[in-house]
Amino acid sequence: MSRTDAPSPDALTPELDADLEERLEYRWSDPPGIIGFFTSVDHKRIGIRYIVTAFVFFFLAGLMALVMRAQLAQPEADVVGPDTYNQLFTMHGTLMIFLFNTPVLAGFGNYLLPLMLGARDMAYPRLNAFSYWVFLLGSMFVLSSFAIGEVPDVGWFAYTPLSGPEYSEDRGVDFWGLGVIFIGVSTTVGAINFLVSTIKMRAPGMSLDRLPIFVWSIVSMALMVVFAVPAVTLAAGLLELDRLGGTAFFEPDRGGDPLLYQHLFWFWGHPEVYILFLPAVGMVSTIIPIASRERLAGYLWTVGAFLAIAFISFGVWVHHMFATGLPAQAAGFFSSASLVIAIPSGILYFCWIATMLPGRVQRTVPMLFSLGFLAIFLAGGITGVMVASMSFDVQVTDSYFVVAHFHYVLNGAVVFPIFAAIYHWFPKMIGRNLSDRLGRWSFWIMAIAFQFAFFPMHILGLLGMPRRIYTYEDGLGWTTLNVVISIGSVAFAVGVALTLVNVVRSWRRGSAAVPNPWGADTLEWATTSPPPEYNFAGLPVVASRHPLWDQQPLPLLIDSELDGPTDHEAETPTETDERQALLLRDLTPAGALERRSPMADGLHGNPAGSLLVPEPTWLPFVVALGMLVLAVGALYQSLPVLVAGGAYGLVGLVWWAWRTDQEPE
Amino acid sequence: MRWARGPAGFGWRAARAVLVAGLSVGLVACSDDAPSALDPRGPDSQRIATSWWLLFGLGAAVYVVVAGFIVRGLGRPAPVPQQRLILLGGIVVPTLVLAVVGVETVQATRAVFEDDTDARIVVDGRQYWWEVRYPGDGVVTANEVHIPAGEKVTVDLVTDDVIHSFWVPELTGKLDMIPGQTNQITFEADEPGTYRGQCAEFCGIQHAYMAFVVVAHEPADFDRWLADRQEPPSRPEGPQARRGRQVLESEACAGCHTVAGTNATGDEGPDLSDVAARRELGAGATENTPEELRRWIRDSQDIKPGNHMPPIELSDRDLDALVAYLEQLDGT
Q1: How confident is the model at residue A1 (pLDDT cuts 50, 70, 90)?
Q2: What is the rounded distance in angstroms from the CA atom of residue A146 to the CA atom of residue B312?
């Protein structure tokens, strides 16, 4: 199918174009005000909401870290007591992993995926909204523990039996356990949505080998989530059954096994690192080629590396348990797998290097943060190989060496790319430009302070300082380094604050952004900044991996003379022609009367009709509220509330299943 | 003009300065006092330290090479055979480096982890202290693991409450204590000396003050140490100490603590039979002096908040007597 002579609307005049936009606007706008806020299913609104909410938790967790650093800045300090300190490090970890890192990446995925795919929304927009509401309500549930005064204090990993009913009597752990279930549900449905959206919701011609690299990173991440996250949801669920229901899954006195908990937790916990890492490297793999004015070298290598990481990461979880007294042979297997997973990361590095070398690299702010990522993750990856070596790991596990290692990975290799992404996509999302100068200051302060805040932790660990201690004696040789770390952490916070100031200032009164400020190659830059509710007035037709670089001007579905969407062989000409005709009917001005988004099939991205996108609806919020009632019922072990929440949620789900929220006209 | 675009030039220079400064601070801070894994005092920690220096050397080399490529990438455009570069730098070289790491791991692991044998010592992790038993010899003490130097020592690690982890960085890596299972650790101290250890798995509010020491003696001294403790403590000397023993036996103390040869046979808290011989109180919380012991008994919550010992209401006279008695329990 090279060209199509399907019936096209009359020659498009500017007036007709304006008419089209008006119709789309009418069809896609959310209701105004507060009702629109609760009922919107727009992936862009949800995405930005995710990012903003997650950043609130990032700042909270950062403040907690600063209090901890104040306590540790001198030996035997009394800034906070042991009870508060234990709550702080528990909540710092919980917020950073569950309420910041995971959702902020989901936010970018939500915002960018349909735009990059040339679609108008996700495959399940209502599920998308549901996923956000569950995340928000779950987060508020976890944080309400501060209001009740019973804060989780058993570490973000909540090992049994310490987290069990006998050793943690107040409700703190329940806030954590039930909260994790919320986040587990939210993340899992989100991942399913990403997978289905990528498979089905693509612009005509966007074959799998033309997917933007960021989309591939989201796909790999989502694949991992679907298999890994149920394990932690289960671990937290069984823990809560032990605590609230009197079962004994993890109670050694009654035949349970505390190590079972660790296996379930880390079966998710290690893939989780890569669940966070993959979208972050997806961002970097997007930004480096743009800043280098070069195509990503080794696109297939990169995709292969993503998928290899996703696969191998399921064979490494036991390296968190090397000190539990495992049989040597089992440990040997997990030690080897943990070493092998370094190879895909090596491939990624050399793909980026091979992209930068022939290019003329512009040191834009997003590129600076990407370079920060390259420098920091390189160290974090190397220490990762070290801790994969079992004999060495038993010295440093649960010491500050490991704290250093995973902050190089989670802060360096995830937060730096997220900051890169903010500087890269803010103009698109908000339609305003960030200050370049503030961005540079923010980067350099963060990058340099990072080394002071985290590098000395390696040495502390080797000097025998364990993790999770609220204080230490003088004269152990740990004091000087702790002072350096504390000063570094304050400086790091200053760097972060500069970006916050930058974002707040520009959001209110930044200069207007052009559609494609970076000269980027993917479809989100083909529409206005910010994009309209319907993303694209005329839907793009893709014939390259880099449509905005190779297809000038970008062919749109409304054009009467349409280039074939794909150079792949169609299955049968007639079938494809039929679909093409359908697609044109649905997505050209005539179809703008309905909320429709293009669909593509399988590998090749041949047009496969269109999807009716649901209208704004209260359902996701209403059903998510049911989950909250259920959790509160479980927390207070109140059967009536539990039953009420369950029944309410069930009714909501049935109602949901009943309605598509849009009748085709 | 560079300044106008932001602190870029300053930043690159500062980044270099940081590297140098960081390494210097690190070296200065490597105090002799630290229970350092890089200051090995036994064959196991020695083996692991050797492993570390190999890993560090390889890691540093990899860092320098890859960082060199990245820095070059920022320079003038240089056409490269991209596929070959990815294949070589991303697969071939990493595979070789990882193979070295793998072989080293297998060898070091084999050297450090021994097969199970009969243990002479049992260390029982408790919230937040360590009970140390020599079952064959009928000796129980707390927070100090006495061993003969120059011999391999095998310890059974157990716990009945929550998970703890036994870690003496100067002697060997850590091993968890997990309820419902017995883990075995074997290590050796080359020379007589005192080696600090600490709980390495978060175990509750006072995880920070769950320290202990391994005390390695000349073998003959170790035998004497053990023999001393096999006898119950000698009778208290002087009226005050005798009264102190009565206080111990009649007040709350006996419900939780044991002193060999008395009516005090509780097992919630540490065995006090040689309490005066120990270096510290409260598993590292404070020094073991008569004043601190007195303070500890009156309100240990003030010293180590959250530990399981309640404040003890005693008259000053009883308290003085009790301290006088406990000070005589020096293990001889």
Answers
A1: very low
A2: 32
pLDDT digits (tens, 9 = 90+) for A78-98: 999 999 999 999 999 999 999
Q: Report the complex ipTM.
A: 0.92
What residues of A are in contact with residue B72 (Cβ under 8 Å)? 357
Q: A391 vs B51: CB contact, 8 Å cut-off?
A: yes
Residue that is written with structure tokens 């990493």 in the block: B94
Fill in the amino acid letter for A85.
Y
Neighbours of A563 (CB within 10 A): 15
Q: What is the tens place of the pLDDT at every residue in A47-89?
A: 999 999 999 999 999 999 999 999 999 999 999 999 999 999 9
Can you read off the two tokens belonging to residue A515? 């559609």
Residue A33 neighbours by CB distance under 10 Å: 8
d(C-alpha A392, C-alpha B213), whole Å: 22
Peptide linkage before A161 cis (omega within 30 of 0)? yes
Do you know the residue count of chain B? Answer: 332
Q: Count CA within 13 A, CB hemisphere, residue A627.
A: 27
Residues 448-487 of A with CB under 8 A from B: 448, 451-452, 455-456, 459, 462-464, 466-473, 475-478, 480-481, 484
Nearest to B171 by CA among B189, B154, B183, B191: B189
Question: How many Å apart are CA A118 and CA A522, to the nearest integer?
Answer: 9
Is residue A502 within 8 A of residue A420, CB to CB? The reply is no
Token pair in block for residue B52 = 């570390």
* A600: β partners: A607
List of chain A residues whose C-beta atoms are within 8 Å of the C-beta of residue B172: 394
Distance of alpha carbon A632 from alpha carbon A611, whole angstroms: 37
Q: Write the single-letter amino acid at A192.
A: I
Phi, psi of B132 (to 5 degrees): -120, 120
List, as ranges, residues 142-201 from B with C-beta within 8 Å of A: 157, 161-163, 165, 167, 169-170, 172-176, 178-181, 183-184, 196, 198-201
Q: What are phi and psi of A32, to 5 degrees?
A: -70, 160
A197 neighbors A128 (Cβ within 8 angstroms)? no
Q: Specify the length of chain A in residues.
A: 665
What are the C-alpha distances in Å from B26 to residues A268, A453, A463, A485, B19? Answer: 35, 13, 11, 11, 11
B30 vs A: CB within 8 A: yes
